[in-house]
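Intended use. Records like the one below are meant for learning the mapping from a protein sequence to its folded structure. Do not use them to infer anything beyond what is encoded.
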Amino acid sequence: MDTGVNVVGSGQVSGTPDVLRVSLGVEHAAPDVASAVARVGERTDAVMAALRGLGIEESRLGTSAVNVYQDYREPDSAPAYRASHTISIETGDLTGFGELLNAAVDAAGNSLTLHGLQFDIEDKSALLVQARELAFQQAKEKATHLATLAGFSLGAVSAISETQGHFPIRAEAMAGKAAAYDSALNITPGDHTVSVSLEVHFAWGA
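Structure written out for the chain above:
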C-alpha cells in the first residue's frame, strides 16, 4: 500500500435555477383495457395540445411513462382496468406554473394529477468547476495539517476520486381534480446547490 495520507474534501456552490420541470399524470379507468388505453390517450393528446398552445417547445414536452393495470375493486364488483400516462414538461418560464396547470386541468379534467415539480439549473458545468476547486482546496488543507501533525511534508497527489451531487428545489402536490387554479399562482425557487466530494491521496514528501 502506498504511504501517505488519504483525505476527503467537499465543496458546495449555489446558483439561481433557470428551468422548471413538471410531472403530470393522466389516467382513466374502464371496464376493458382497450377502452382505458384509448380514453387516456385522447386526454393525454388534449393536454399536450394545450401545453403546446402555451408555447412549450416540442423538445421539452413528452410522455415519460405508460402504465396499464387492473384497478382494485371490492369483492364481487365488476373488473376494471386503469391506464395512465406520465407527461414531463420543461420550461424556462419560472413564473408560469399556474397558467400551465390551469391549461392541463382544462384539457383533462378529473383525469389529471400533479406528481411534482422541480426547479433546476440546466447547465451546471460552471458550478461544478467551482465546487471541485473548493473541494480540492479543503482536501489539501486537511492533508497538510495531518502531515504536519505526523511530522512529514506533503508530496504529490497519487489518486483522486470524485462524487457529485445536486439539490434541486422540489415541491410535491396533487391536483385537486377539476378545480381551477389561480393563473397568477407563483412558486418562487430558492437557490440550487451543487456539491462535489473529492477523495484525494497525497504521498509523503521527500
